[in-house]
Every structure is written in structure tokens, then in C-alpha cells.
Design goal:
The chain is of the alpha/beta class. It is built from six helices and seven strands; from the N terminus they run βαβαββααβαββα. It starts with a strand and ends with a helix. It binds flavin mononucleotide.
């Protein structure tokens, strides 16, 4: 069974909503999601690394704070240096999602940071695989998938309101789609690896 770990931090609940949507997308592809929430001030990530070792793909989720990943997500990233030296995550799939208050909010820098992080771990990056959803200057619809037009990872905007009402349906569907895509890709990748071992 394909397993996808969703490693995320959420200060005020918006990223957590998206993480749950990613998990539902993973399930929709017939795989098992494991949600791992980073707490403020957390320094021990042993359980995270144990789950990651058993997972086929890791999806990283963080709010964009001051134009980049949040401090708790960065604490996790820095702690993963121990895993980096063993190349334990080599050839696992990786993807990311982020949310911020502004439509841009410099979210691309957050996703780029996580893509470089995954590359340092020799992981294989999976983007949204979606066309931009809102390329029409008469449209400001919030119910359109990939409305913020991101390829590197799923982007969401949370207006200045509670996580019960924002991010909106389109951004949540984008997160769902990313989870589904990562899980399907991980299953294909596993099947291909089995075939190449059998052929060797
Ligand atoms: C410390 C801090 C820094 C922030 N920096 C940005 C930013 O750079 N760009 C932006 O658009 N929104 C920024 N925001 C807004 C958050 O990204 C937004 O509220 C997001 O939904 C928070 O997600 P969370 O509820 O998962 O913590 C910031 C919020 C905080 C608390």
C-alpha cells in the first residue's frame, strides 16, 4: 500500500485545513495518508522521521510567514540534516503547499525553499500538474482550481478570517488534487521499481 506523509505546520489553522484536503486527495487515489503536525517550539522529530522512512512520498505544508516557510517548518527542515546524511529519503517523491494572506504574498519563495530542501534530500519533485485556473481578467472567482496559477506546488490565499471560512473552495480543491496526484505518482513509481527489480 502506498503511504504519503503530510508534514505540516499551521499557526492559525489555515494550513491544517489544506493538509486535511491533501489527505483526502491521497485517499481518493487509494493510498494511505499520515498527517504529521509540527508544533510551535518542537525540537524532537523522531516520530516524523520514523513515519517518513516508511512513506513513499512526503508532502510539506506551511504557511508563508515573512515571505518564506514558518519557523517551526524550518526547525523540522534543519533537524532533518541527520536524515540527509543517510540519504534515507533518496528517490521518495516530494511536493508542497502553502497559504498566505495575499494573493501572491511571496508564496513562490516558500515553495522554492521546499523544492530545494527536497532536492538536497535527493527526492523527486511533483508539481500541481494543473493549468492556471483564473486567467481571465473579468474573473476573480475563488471556486476555481489552481486559481493562483501555481505549477511548483499548491498555493492558497486565506483572507483575514477564520480557518472555517477561508481558504475557499478552489484553493482547497487544488490541495486535494495535489494529494491525489502525489499518491497516484507514488503508486506508479513503486510499481515501476518492482518491475525493474524483477527484470534485473
Ligand atoms: C508572522 C506572520 C507572517 C506572515 N507573513 C506573510 C507574508 O509574508 N505574506 C502573506 O501574504 N501573508 C503573510 N502572513 C499571513 C499568513 O500567511 C496567513 O494568515 C496564513 O493563512 C496563516 O496560515 P496558518 O493559519 O496555517 O498559520 C503572515 C502571518 C504571520 C502570523
Amino acid at each position: 500500500m502506498t503511504q504519503v506523509a503530510i508534514i505540516h505546520h499551521s499557526g492559525f489553522g489555515h494550513t491544517a485545513v489544506l493538509a486535511a484536503d491533501v489527505a483526502r486527495g491521497v485517499e481518493a487515489a487509494g493510498a494511505t495518508p499520515v498527517l504529521l503536525a509540527i508544533e510551535l517550539g518542537q525540537t524532537n522529530f523522531d516520530e516524523f522521521f520514523a513515519v517518513a522512512a516508511e512513506s513513499d512520498a512526503l508532502v510539506f505544508g506551511t504557511p508563508t510567514y515573512m515571505g518564506t516557510v514558518s519557523a517551526p517548518m524550518k526547525a523540522f527542515m534543519d533537524a532533518s540534516a541527520a536524515v540527509y546524511f543517510t540519504k534515507q529519503w533518496k528517490d521518495k517523491l516530494a511536493a508542497a503547499f502553502t497559504v498566505s494572506g495575499s494573493p501572491s504574498g511571496d508564496k513562490l519563495n516558500t515553495l522554492t525553499t521546499l523544492a530545494i530542501f527536497a532536492a538536497q534530500h535527493a527526492m523527486l519533485w511533483i508539481g500541481t500538474g494543473q493549468n492556471p485556473g483564473n486567467n481571465d481578467d473579468t474573473s476573480a472567482a475563488t471556486d476555481v482550481e489552481n486559481r493562483l496559477g501555481s505549477f511548483l506546488g499548491a498555493m492558497a490565499q486565506a483572507a483575514n478570517d477564520s480557518a472555517e471560512v477561508t481558504p475557499k473552495a478552489g484553493d482547497r480543491a487544488t490541495a486535494h488534487s495535489l494529494g491525489r496526484r502525489v499518491a497516484a505518482a507514488a503508486a506508479r513509481w513503486q510499481a515501476g521499481a518492482r518491475e525493474s527489480v524483477a527484470a534485473a
